[in-house]
Design goal:
Layout lengths: L1 H12 L1 H16 L4 H20 L2 H11 L12 E5 L5 H7 L9 H12 L4 E5 L13 H11 L7 E4 L5 H12 L7 E6 L3 H10 L5 E5 L11 H23 L11
Parallel strand pairs: 1-2, 1-4, 2-3, 4-5
């Protein structure tokens, strides 16, 4: 129930969707008897969209998330590498018959590099069908396994957890699959902005993995780009809302988890 509620909430409250709804509501009101208030609402929405296009508000929102966990000193020996899903466009991959990666591809490429430097480490791929209306077929973790095997990783090194639909389920189901032992060192690989929520979930689940953030989004030069800035703002707001929601639901051990 919480999964469905979260999906429906975000469909409305994502900044891009919310600003569009605000603009449409203003235009609708302007065609009715409340012309002045409707135009004011539409102008407000347009000004907010202009602000997002001109100012790096997305980077401002992402930066504190990305700075929360610095890159660690990786020990000489690793027992495993946990790779969270989110880098594969599952539906596009199904339609075209080849694995399509998105902006979070570093979750996979950096994990591959780590696996090559640490041949003793297992890889745990965690990611199932996160869509509101799930489709039959290969899940994201399965597709990632196929890609890594094609790139030279031995199949026997890979563990696949393909039932999780959320970060919370990533942590619980990955722990149950790997059964990590005291003293083992596992890296947790995910996007830097996603790391606070992910690490909080894993630590709350009793698994103190070593955070290894990738896929940094800050540091870009300012430009005029509504699509780019709005996408980054959506990404950041989703993480901030997720942190609050997960804390209220008791899925993390802190509101803003830290190392």
């Amino acid at each position: 129930m919480a999964f469905v509620a979260g999906k429906l909430f975000w469909a409305v409250m994502a900044p891009g969707n919310l600003l569009l709804l605000l603009l449409l509501a203003g235009l609708f009101r302007a065609t009715r008897s409340r012309r002045r208030s409707g135009l004011a609402l539409a102008v407000l929405a347009a000004l907010l969209l202009l602000m997002v296009a001109v100012l790096p508000v997305g980077q401002w929102a992402v930066a504190p998330l990305e700075r929360r966990f610095p890159l660690p000193d990786v020990p000489a020996r690793l027992d495993g590498i946990i790779v969270l899903g989110g880098a594969v466009e599952a539906e596009i991959s199904r339609v075209h018959g080849e694995i399509a990666l998105n902006d979070a591809a570093e979750r996979i490429t950096e994990s591959l590099a780590l696996a090559q430097r640490h041949p003793e480490a297992k890889l745990l791929l965690s990611g199932g069908e996160a869509a509101l209306l799930p489709r039959e077929g290969e899940q994201e973790a399965d597709a990632t396994r196929t890609l890594l095997v094609e790139l030279g990783i031995a199949p026997e090194r890979i563990l696949v957890e393909d039932r999780s639909r959320s970060t919370f389920e990533n942590a619980v189901l990955s722990r149950d699959l790997a059964q990590p032992k005291p003293g083992e060192t596992w890296l947790l690989v995910t996007s830097a902005a996603h790391m606070p929520r992910a690490f909080g979930c894993f630590r709350h689940a009793g698994w103190q993995a070593l955070p290894y953030p990738v896929d940094f989004r800050t540091g870009m030069r300012p430009d005029f780009s509504l699509a780019g800035h709005l996408g980054l703002l959506d990404f950041a707001v989703k993480e901030w809302v997720g942190l609050v929601a997960y804390r209220l639901l008791g899925r993390t051990d802190a509101l803003f988890p830290a190392p």
